[in-house]
Amino acid sequence: MRFVLKLLGFVAVALIVGFGLSYYALSDGRVLGAVRVGPWAAWPAMGSSAPDPYTRAYLVRAGALQLGQSEGIVFTALSDSDGHPLDRNCRYRLEGATPVASFWTLVALAPDGSNIATRGGQQALQSRHIARANDGSMALYVSRTLAPENWLEIDGTGAFELQLTLYDTSNLSGSGTSVQALPSISKEACGA
Amino acid sequence: MRFLLGLGAAIVLGLILHLAVILALPAFASQTTWSRIEALGPANHVVVLPPVAAGAPNPLHLDPELAYAVCRVNLAQRPGVVSGVLPNAFWSLAIFNKAGDVTYSTTNRDGIGQNLNLGIFNADQTHLLAEQQIDVADGLLIVESNSNDVFVLVRIAPPHQAERARYEQALSKIVCGNIRQ
Fold first, then answer.
1. ipTM for this model
2. Which residues of A touch B56 (CB under 8 A)?
3. Taking a C-beta distance cutoff of 8 angstroms, is the pair B119, B104 a contact?
4. Scanning every residue of chain A, which has its alpha carbon at the shortest distance from the alpha carbon of B62?
5. Rounded CA separation A7/A4 (Å)
6. Residues of B in contact with A68 (CB under 8 A)
7. What's the predicted TM-score (pTM) here?
């Protein structure tokens, strides 16, 4: 009886480690190959013609149309700059510079990947259509409640993620190897 | 001591299991990028993807600001070709293989301008091309593919969403298929 219990424990530990690590590696906990800048993370190998086994497994699981390395790169943020998970109940201010690119888009997504912008409103902020200060700086707001300047109005409750896509950028795609800066994400207020 | 040895062995077995899962997953996945594109329509036919709607599932992870066209081509018999004239806006092109890897990508900033004129050749066809046994039109951008089953994805960024329909129409006019010999 004691042997059977030990065997069951052995198998349970092996299964938890094996499948737990796999789930972690293939969800947003992908640590291998990630480039992190503040709260943002990107996986440049996703657009490669020969991705590593972890990236390939992730791509197969996602079944998505990723950007090729010459086309651009996607940065994802699940938390603000202080490390707190993004919450649709709060208003966030994005401030700072973006790397050189032909243009970029910013979208807010639910954990299932659906766009959480208000129906009928704009689904994304795009660099060509935002208001900037005279010195070129910008402030973007993502919230359910009214916000000044460049506002991405979102809907619903619960966690969400921000996705910043840089199109036609040299950063991490081809000749570039680094990203100097990405906008900070600051939580301003929470509640109705 | 025996407990720690047993625990270590279980963790090692778990790591082996983990590696097996990572390596085997591509072979067992059913809802892959390829299967999703295959379900959109027949080969050699350009399909303009419907725009992303707020709150709706977005399994292909499309950017709502862009319009997309996709075409599946088989290179087993003849090289593939994708051609068209696109509006004066940012557009890019990516070739995917059956495994879902991007084997080639470019943007219209790379000197292509508005004219899309791309030939996709497998290794044997590239060899024949080098020996001038295949005639191709002047100006065709030749790309070699390591796989016979590929699909081409064209992304275009309309300056304003009000112009989206015009850009989607331009995408629908892209010609895609095999080179006639």
1. 0.86
2. 114-115
3. no
4. A65
5. 5
6. 92, 94, 102, 104-106
7. 0.87
